[in-house]
Each structure stands twice: as C-alpha cells, then as structure tokens.
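Board notes, transcribed. Complex of a protein with heme C.
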Amino acid sequence: MKRVLSVATGILMVLSLAPAHATAAAETPTYNQDVGPILLSNCASCHRPNQIAPMPLLSYKDARPWARAIKAKVASREMPPWFADPRFGEFSNDTSLSTDEIATISAWVDAGAPEGDGPAPVPPRFSEAGWSHPSGLDPDYVIDFPVEWHIDADGESPNFNLFTPLPLDDVMWVSATEVRPGNLPVTHHIVTRLMNTPPGMKIGTGPAWSGGPEVDYVLVPDPDADQEELAATRKARAEAAKEPKDKDADEAEDADDFQDPSAAEAGAGFGAYIPGVGASVVREGHARSIRGDLFDTIVWNLHYQATGKPETARPSIGAWLADEEDNTTEHALLLRESTSQGKQLVAPPPMTPEERAAAGRRNQAGQGLNPLLAPIPPNDANWTVTGFAAFQNDAVINNLLIHAHLRGRDFTYLLTYPDGREEILLRVPNYSFDWQYQYQLTEPLQVPAGSTLKLISRYDNSASNRLNPAPQKEVYWSEQSWDDMFLSLVGYTLVDEVKEKGTTDE
Ligand code: HEC
C-alpha cells in the first residue's frame, strides 16, 4: 500500500510541472476511473445487500446520492472502521484508506461526483444469501438453527445457551467457517462451540434461562439414563480428578476440559459472529478440523438486543470444505492472564466437575468467568491485565484477535524473541466493542521456539469512557456485556507440522 502511494505522489509532482489545463483535467477523479475501484475494494464488503451497512455502494447509481456523506465519513476516518495503529504490522483485511485515496474521494465529491468515461468497475462476486467468504461462494456445509428465535420489541435479554446435536460423526476438514446471524441488527453476538452432552442429561424442553421462555433446546435430566451406570461414571470421574493426569486418557473426556488449551481449540468448532467478524478463513494450503469424532453437541451462546419492534432470527453455521491435502492444521493459542495490576497470577489447579458446574452457575449471574482476575474497581480508568504464552516449538503466527467489552480501552500484542528482541505485532489504541476484527497478518510471522507473546490490555471503568454503562460499579468477568472479558486468540501453525506434510506429499 505505502509503496504504491509514494509512486502516485511522484506522478502528481511530475504532472504539476505540465501546462495548467492538462493538470486540471488529469486531477478531476471520476467514479469509473478512480473512485469506483476504491469503494469496491474498501467498502463493498459491508456496503452490499444482506450485510451490516445501511446502503449498498456497488455502483455509480448507489454511490452518487451518498457522495457528501461519503466524503465526510472517509475524511474523519470513521469509514471504513479500522482500529489498528498503522505503525505496527500489516494486515490483509485492512480496509483503511491511504491519505491519497481520501484526497481522491474528496476531490471527486468537490467536482460534483462525475461518473466519467470508460467501463464501470465490476463489483466483486458476493453471496446473495449473506455469507461473507471473500470468494463470494456459499458454504459447502450448512447447519441451520432448528427454529426461528423471537426477540421482544424492548427490554434486555441475557446471554444464554441452547444446544443442538452435531450432525457429524467424523473429522471434517474446513478452510473457512462462519456463523451467520440471520438478522443482523438484533444480534449482539453468537459464539458456537462443541461439547458432549453430559452423562445423565439430554437435549429437551425447559427455560432458555432462569425465568426465560420454554424452548426445546436446553439440557435436561434424561429420565431413561441408567442410574447405576451414571453413579459409576461419576465415581470414576471423581477418582480421576484426584489422580495426576494420564496423557492417554480418553480423548473425548479431555476434549470437554476447557482448562486445557488444546481441548479448548478442538471445541472451538465453528467460531463466532461478532460485528466486524465475517467468515473465519484459514491461510491457503491450511485447514482446521471440526471434530465430529470427539463431540456430539453444538452449544449456541446467543445474545440479542431489542430494536424497538418484535423481531425473529434464525442463525446458521456454514463451513467451506478443504481439499484432503490442505491439512496443515491452524491451532489457536489462548493467552491466559498472568498479571493484573502488576500482580502475578498463578494458574489454578484444574477444577473438578462439581466446581466447574458451580462456576458455570456464577457465570449466569455475571461472575466467575476468569477465576484468576480480580474485578475492576469502580471509576478506575487504567486497569491493566497482561496475558502471556510461550511458544514451545517453532511456529508461524497467522492472525490475532482481541475480545473485550465496553470497558476495553487499548490493547498491544508484544512478541519477545529468545534473544530479547521485542516487536509489537498489533496495537489497537482505541478499542471498539462495536467492531471486532480477526487481524490477518499479510506476511505470516515465523517465531522460533522460546519466543513469548504478551497481550497488554487496559480497561477504563471511569465516566470518561463514554460507552461505560455504570462507572460506579465493580466490573466482573463474564460473557455478559455489562461485565467484561479478557480474550486473546492467536491463530498459528507449527513449523514441524508443515514440514511433515511436505515429506508425505513427495
Ligand atoms: C466493516 C464494515 C464497513 C465497511 C468496510 C465500510 N462501512 Fe460504511 N458503514 C458501515 C455501517 C455498519 C454503517 C452504519 C453504522 C455507522 O454509521 O457506524 C456505515 C455507515 C456509513 C455511512 C453513513 C450512512 C448514513 O446513514 O449516514 C457512510 C457514508 C459510509 N458508511 C461510507 C463508507 C465508505 C465510503 C466506505 C469505504 C471507504 C465504508 N463505509 C466502509 C459498515 C462499513
């Protein structure tokens, strides 16, 4: 981007030496020649039918009536929404405009937004059904939520979980997944993950949340469960919890253990919908696995917001299948919080199933998600949390994600090489809860074993944070948006796994 820019500036300087009338003609940008291509590559991903933006910007006819608003929004850098500090890292999904592109759009609007000669630029292909894979293709594999969900015209509804069977018995290799909300304005977020229905339970009818409406997709006790077998399973689990962990223990059992990062990775399944996050696409030649062999249930964590009129929404999950040979696995690294306010935090021992169930219940009440983290005190403008992880093997970092709620203020991913050299991979100086991106590194970054990665995060629970709903309150850690979260996800591959694949291919 930057190199192209300086070339363009060079051309302008040469032109300014040419006779005045020639300069004027060359400097009047037109839609067909100059502005259309910019809008199609930087705006159309959202400004098209079935996407989050209020109007399409796919043609001259679309853009012309909005010319003044376009100039205002791009000049103020409100559009396109993008939050990474341009001094650090380069990201392939960066839609932000260069100073020259903004100048071109402004000059076009000032000149009366002419269409110009020549053929109109062709919009990229996109899915009519509202999927957002950059290829424009619909997914190969779709799971629709079984019913339409009804959202009241007003009032606040909590974050809640519904459960449906995972219709898959095998490993499925995918190059991309997406959670499509079905109704964008009402959807605050949807997080999906995979699990096993606990012994003695089944998917049945009950309240969606405590005091919520009756639905068919909650976990209820299974009256047909064999009580003797259940008692035996519970006893075995309690015994196992006391013993040091056996590496060869049943994989599926481990897969439900979210204390274990590799289990959390396997259970991440189809991913999430958060505003700004479309299809999650792995790097060319890579694949992610959906473990139908390990799990039998999809958890849909749903959060809706009222729009002033009754609404319905029916979310879906989509997957784009990968070629058999594209199976260099992309892993996900969670940076577990290690310090808060400079105080060292020590990872707790794994929880017993009983403790986990109790923590889950606290969660519903808005507490307990991160048992390590102290709550953010009232009116604190500068609360810090630092997550930390070490690479045990040579790895390649592909993408970085940050997730916090309304108190999130600024975030920095800092890599320390084994020789002590430090590099900022991503800095988000003004975090926005409304726009969350998975930052895709343009050049995947190779990191040697022994490198460490930190996510340094600051939260603002004061009244000067204009999004803060309640600066006078202590803030707990939970998935509820009035609480806050510290979540980092780093997509990476292992160099050894890439090499192994290379040899088998020969
Ligand atoms: C990541 C998605 C996204 C991208 C990319 C994006 N927009 Fe938007 N745009 C939105 C959404 C959502 C809104 C409405 C909410 C808002 O204003 O924040 C919006 C609003 C606007 C508005 C105001 C419309 C009104 O009702 O007044 C203009 C003008 C606009 N965008 C222009 C652009 C231009 C020009 C680009 C590219 C240079 C662009 N946008 C890129 C999502 C996007």
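Residues 39, 42-43, 45-47, 52-54, 66, 69-70, 73-74, 79-81, 95, 97, 276 surround heme C (CB under 6 Å). Confidence is low (pLDDT under 50) at residues 1-25, 244-261, 360-368.
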